[in-house]
Design a protein that fits this description.
Elements (H helix, E strand, L loop, with lengths): L1 H19 L14 H11 L7 H15 L8 E5 L1 H9 L15 H4 L3 E5 L6 H9 L6 H9 L3 H8 L3 H15 L2 E2 L6 H8 L9 H16 L11 E2 H11 L8 H6 L2 H18 L6 E3 L5 E7 L4 E3 L1 H5 L7 E8 L7 H8 L3 E4 L4 H9 L4 H7 L4 E5 L22 H11 L10 E5 L6 H9 L9 H6 L3 E5 L4 H7 L6 H17 L20 E2 L3 H14 L1 E3 L5 H17 L13 E5 L15 E4 L4 E5 L6 H15 L5 E11 L2 E11 L11 H10 L3 E3 L2 E10 L7 H13 L5 H7 L11 H21 L3
Parallel strand pairs: 1-2, 1-9, 2-5, 8-13, 9-10, 10-11, 11-12, 14-15, 15-17
Antiparallel strand pairs: 3-4, 6-7, 6-8, 16-17, 18-19, 19-21, 20-21
Length: 768
């Protein structure tokens, strides 16, 4: 076996030597400038037609040598999350077409392929599980686990034919991707509904293993909530695989407070399920066993928490920084470090820029371990399309779309220690043979390719490699461009061959970018604990709906629970002044709406948020009304009196003066300290009376409108959480986007006030 391998390697080296030694090399007839791109083109597309016989023969020999490069014993580690990671491993296992060809991709050429998966997802079924269980996000792990199932392992473990193995995987995909909308009454019903009841397709061990996990969902009291609401069954099977190893005496609340009790059972639950289903035991490992939350800061200074929320944000500004808030001390399995240390190839999979790779490389120890392994081939795979909310705007020039150099700068800026040593080449999907009509169809959907600015990428110390890694048949049949798992695996094999056999001087990399500033770890509350506190808080407050049933009240309570859960930026301390919610009938609404259309407010005298009746039972309207009033509540009972007095000069009406008198600090119930409150009022353009520190004034010219500081606080609070909620404030903040001129000092002042207001809310109000 060893002699055969040496012969194969010698064959490739000899082919490269012979074909490259001619004065006019046949390689010069292939497109591209970089030798690796030429080799990839040859491996994927074959020998170009119309060449002289001797030239074609030489290229074919080289192609054959590339195809016989031995890679089956190589250790491959892939970092990423979700669809991008699973696609290159073995195809998108959530796609209905995946079971038709489930055994190709990286795993088919590189059977020792393992994935290290991001755990910051908090949307869909995964997010729902986080409300009940002190676990990491399981959705991406489920997704990649299915894609990692190998034909050879199914055959070795269970003696299956290729047809039987394909049938097994098809049923597993059905079971793991099954989502119930009507909650099952018992485990037998769930088994029947998902396709496992009465079926003999699966090997006995797999059938029994899955049945035990599903029964455990109903037998373990700690998991009862998981089948009380709609879920993806694969996530529940993973959860059950973990929980059946944790002694019953450990309740969820204790597991949340003592994460080390979960750690070993988490890894064992995942690895045992991998082995059961026919994947490598270490095929899928989370980057950390500690629950984590993504936080993004935009260039206008706002910062929001939560991957799902950030993916749906419409901020209108580029993302500046990404942070990961860990719910405890970040913990990494020794198996993860062992895989990295022994890797021959490391691949950074395509995926969401800020919510796929960056969270993994913010886990302490992981980037350092990757950099320490200096013998491995390290490849970053670029995304194909710009992504709304993440890569649709450039920090360098927000008016243009995202370039590949922007993506690399984002990694450099957000990964501790920078990217030097993490990867030295970036793989881009070539679109040169894609018809313009296909790209136009994508453009209509708002999908625009990430532009490859090759020279800028090279100047950043990274080699850009453009390759046709999409499926021509899918493009021809459906007009769709996707990373093709099999094409991708051929590209990686070719790059490995070049890495092994091309002299180092031909793979020169320019000077790497300097290291960026050190990242600080931030902490976050365990999601299930936070959710429990939200539920407990809402159970204690009053909800007054005149003429409505208890069912109506409960629906509002659940809606508020959803709002507070989705806005993970809201500290639970922000709820301290709110004692209840009161619905005011429209005809009884007395507040003057001349200058605003805000139909809610916080009443400091009874601690109730009061919302006009027509804003209830409309989720979007209630969310805005509640958040504006919640923001106002943070000022509490700060005001002693407020009054608007006319300003006259010589009998002529000049305008008005708004007078605000604060309660003495000892009598004040306010979220802000005395100093912070004064700072905020200054940002709201209130002027403090030197003779009375509790007296603030604001002059209003003529018949101008005026946003009082309490309302401004509430509007800015809601805007900070989601800029779509307060168009009035969005209009004011738009000044930040405008290129200001020093010739207009007032514009400079206004811009500075806006920026300082954002910093105040970020650092003081939301403690980001």
């Amino acid at each position: 076996m060893q002699n055969h391998r040496e012969e194969q390697e010698a064959g490739l080296a000899e082919s490269l030597k012979q074909i490259g030694g001619k004065q006019l090399s046949p390689l010069d007839l292939l497109p591209h400038e970089d030798l690796r791109e030429k080799l990839v083109e040859l491996a994927l597309s074959g020998v170009p037609p119309g060449l002289p016989a001797e030239t074609a023969y030489g290229l074919q020999q080289l192609r054959d040598a590339l195809a016989s490069e031995p890679v089956e014993d190589l250790n491959v580690v892939v970092f990423g999350g979700g669809t991008g990671l699973s696609t290159i491993i073995g195809g998108d296992s959530r796609s209905s077409s995946w079971p038709r060809n489930p055994f190709y991709g990286l795993k088919s050429l590189f059977p020792h392929t393992r994935s290290i998966v991001c755990v910051t997802d908090d949307g869909g079924s995964t997010g729902e599980l986080l409300t009940d269980l002190p676990l990491i996000a399981l959705g991406d792990i489920r997704h990649v686990l299915l894609s990692s199932i190998q034909l050879s392992l199914l055959q070795q473990l269970y003696g299956l034919t290729e047809t039987q193995a394909a049938q097994t995987v098809e049923l597993l995909a059905t079971v793991f991707n099954y989502r119930f909308s009507t909650c099952p009454e018992n485990s037998q019903q769930l088994l029947q509904d998902c396709g496992l009841g009465g079926r003999n397709i699966l090997p006995k061990a797999i059938q029994e293993g899955l049945e035990k996990n599903i029964h455990h969902l109903f037998d373990d009291a700690r998991l009862h909530n998981t089948h009380a609401i709609p879920h993806c069954l694969g996530n529940l099977i993973l959860a059950a695989s973990v929980y059946k190893r944790i002694p019953d005496r450990y309740e969820n609340i204790r597991l949340a407070l003592e994460p080390l009790l979960v750690r070993k059972h988490l890894y064992r639950g995942i690895t045992s399920l991998c082995a059961l289903l026919g994947a490598d035991e270490l095929a899928v490992l989370p980057c950390t066993s500690v629950s984590a939350q993504l936080s993004l800061r935009y260039t206008n200074g706002t910062q929001i928490n939560g991957e799902y929320k950030s993916g749906n944000a419409k901020r209108g500004y580029p993302i500046d920084r990404a942070f990961v808030n860990f719910c405890g001390e970040p913990d990494v399995s020794s198996a993860v470090f062992d895989l990295i240390e022994n890797a021959d190839i490391m691949i950074m999979a395509p995926g969401s820029l800020y919510s796929s790779l960056i969270p993994i490389f913010q886990v302490p120890g992981i980037p350092e371990a990757v950099k320490k392994n200096d013998k491995a081939l390290k490849i970053l795979v670029s995304n194909l399309w710009v992504q709304t909310g993440e890569t649709d705007l450039s920090m360098v020039d927000p008016e243009r779309k995202f370039h590949l150099s922007d993506l690399l700068k984002a990694y450099e800026r957000n990964i501790p220690g920078g990217t030097s040593g993490l990867f030295d080449q970036v793989l881009c999907l070539s679109l040169k043979n894609v018809p313009a009509t296909v790209l136009q169809n994508y453009a209509v959907e708002g999908k625009i390719p990430i532009y490859l600015d090759r020279e800028k990428v090279r100047s950043q110390g990274i080699v850009p490699l453009e390759c046709g890694m999409y499926s021509p048949s899918v493009l021809l049949e459906h007009g769709v461009i996707r990373h093709d798992p099999q094409q991708f695996s051929l590209v990686v094999r070719t790059l490995w061959a070049a890495f092994r056999h091309v002299p180092e001087k031909n793979l020169t990399i320019t000077e790497s970018a300097p290291e960026k500033e050190r990242h600080l770890l931030t902490s976050s509350e365990i999601p299930s604990i936070r959710y429990s506190k939200i539920r407990d808080y809402l159970a204690t407050i009053s909800i007054e709906l005149q003429g409505k049933t208890e069912k109506d009240v409960e629906s509002i309570r659940k809606l508020l629970q959803k709002i507070l859960w989705n806005h993970k930026d809201i500290p639970l301390a922000h709820l301290q002044f709110v004692k209840g919610i009161q619905c005011i009938e429209t005809e009884e609404w007395k507040r003057n709406q001349k200058w605003d259309r805000v139909y809610s407010f916080f009443d400091p005298y009874d601690g109730l948020i009061k919302i006009r009746q027509d804003q209830f039972f409309q989720e979007a309207a209630l969310e805005v009304a509640f958040l504006v009033a919640l923001g106002q509540s943070l000022l509490g009972n700060y005001a002693q009196t407020k009054e608007m007095l006319p300003v006259k000069e010589g009998g002529t009406h000049m305008g008005k003066a708004y007078h605000l008198y604060l309660k003495p600090f000892a009598e004040r119930g306010c979220y802000l300290s005395d100093e912070d409150l004064s700072d905020y009022l200054a940002l709201a353009r209130m002027v403090q009376d030197p003779a009375d520190q509790n007296h603030f004034t604001r002059l209003i010219n003529g018949t101008e409108g005026f946003t009082p500081p309490g309302l401004l606080f509430g509007l800015t609070y809601a805007w900070y959480l989601d800029n779509r909620f307060a168009s009035h404030i969005e209009y004011k903040m738009a000044l930040i986007k405008v290129d200001h001129s020093d010739l207009i000092p007032e514009q400079v002042k206004m811009r500075s006030r806006r920026e300082n207001l954002i910093v105040f809310f970020r650092e003081v109000v939301f403690s980001h």
